[in-house]
Amino acid sequence: LHHGAPGAAWAHQQALEAVCPNGPMEDPVGRVCLCSRSRCYLQIGDHEAALKDAEAALKDDKTFIKGIFAKAEALYFKGDFEFSLVFYHRGNKLRSELQEFRLGIQKAREAIINAVGSPEACALEVPAEPVDTRTQSAIVKANTQRRTNRAQGNQQQTQRGEGAGKADKTVKQLLGDLYSDRQYLEDLLSEPWAGEDNPDIAQLLSDGISYLDTRADFWRQQKPIYAREHESKLRMTKKATTTLKVSDTQRSVTSSAKATTDSVPLSAIEEKLDSGDCAGALKQAKEWLARAVDPATVASLHWSIGTAYLDLDDVDTALKHHTQAVALARSTGVEKAVLARCLGGAGRAHARAGNNADALKLYNEKLPLTTEPAELAWLHHEIGRAMIEAGDKAKALEHAEKCVEAAVDATSTQWRLNAAVLLGQAHVANEDHNAATTAFLKAKDLAAELDDAAVMVSIDTALAKLEITV
After folding, report:
1. Element at 128 (helix H, strand E)
2. Least C-beta-crowded within 10 Å: which of 103, 127, 233, 270?
3. CA geometry: angle at 182 spanning 181 and 184, to 5°?
C-alpha cells in the first residue's frame, strides 16, 4: 500500500485519526481499520502489536468476525497455535461459510502436530468442537513443550557461535529467498569495520540475523506447506471464480440494472465493493444518494450502502438501507432486475440478522424474477439452508435438488460443489443416510477437482459423523 507494510500501518493510523476522532470503536470503519493494521503488523513481524489491534477491535463486540479472524491470525503467527485454533473454531461457528476459518483450522492443527508430534496431546480430534476447560492443561503442556523445544534449538545455535558458517539445508529451504539475505548480513558482520568501532551497526546486523533465525524456527514448527500453496492458489483464482462468493453472484445482475442512469457511477461503486473497498464504496454511494432523483438509482444506492455495511459487519445499518431499497423498488415500479437485486440484498441482511422467516419471504419473492443460472443456484442454496434451519425437511430437499439443477446449468464447478454439500445436508435432515453419503462423496470429488483440501476435510468429517450415526 504505502511504501510496504510499515507505511501501510502508518497510513491506517492516519485513517483511524481522520475517520474516528472519538476513537475507533465509535465507527464500524474504525474496527475494520484496526484489523487491517493488525494484518500490516503481521507482515513486518510485530506480532504483539497485531494482537493488540485485534483485541481492540473485539473490545465492544466479541462476535465481530473480522476481529476474530485478526486475533486468530495474530496468535497463529506468534506461535500460539493452540489458542489460535480456538479462535478459528469460534469464527467458523459464527460464519461457517467463510473459507478463511476452515483453512485456519486446518493449518493450525497441522502446525500443532508439527510442534508437539501428536494431535492427542491437545485433545482436538473433533474439528467442529471448541476447546473446553478440560483441554487447558493439555494446552499449557503443549505450549511448555513447544517453548522448551525452541529454547533448546536456540541454545544449540548459541553453542555453535554467532556467524558460525552457513545455515543447513533445511534452514535454506525454510528461508527461501531470505537465505541469501541472511548470508549477506553474516558477511557484513564478519567485516572488521562492523566490530567494536561501530557497535550500533553490529547490533543492527545481529538483530537482522536473529529475526531471520526466529522466522526460520517458526516455519520449522509451523511448516504448513499445504496451507501456503492453497492460499496462493486461492489468490490466483479469486478474480476468475466470480461465483465463489455470494456477493459476486448478487452483483452479477443484468446490465440494465447496473446502468440505471448515466450520471451516477453505479458500476464504479460496485467495483469498489467487489474489490473489498467498502469504505470507499460507502463514501461514494452516500455522496450520490444526497443528489440522486431517479427511483431506480436511489434504490440501487441504498442497496450499495446496505451491502457495504453488511461487509463491514454492521448488520443493523445494512438492514435499514436494504429495507429502504426494497420499499422504494416496490412502490415505484422499477425494472424487475433492480427489484430482484434489492430483494436479494434484503434477504441476505435478514439472514445475517437471524430473521430466517423474513429472509425466506424475500427470497421467495425474488425467485420468479430470477433467470440467471448462477444466481438461481445461489437463491435455491440460501432457501434450502434456511429450510433446514426451520425444520422443513421436504422443502429443504426440494430446493437442494433445484440448486443442483441450476448449478449444472451455470456450468460452475464451485456451485456444483456447494449444491452437492447442501443436498447431502438435506438428506441428513431427512435421515436418508445412504443418499447423504452419495451426495457428500460427489461433493468430495468436486472439491478434489477444485483442489480445495479444506472443504475435503469438512466433507470427511461429515462422512465420519454419518458412519457413527449408522
Report:
1. none
2. 233
3. 65
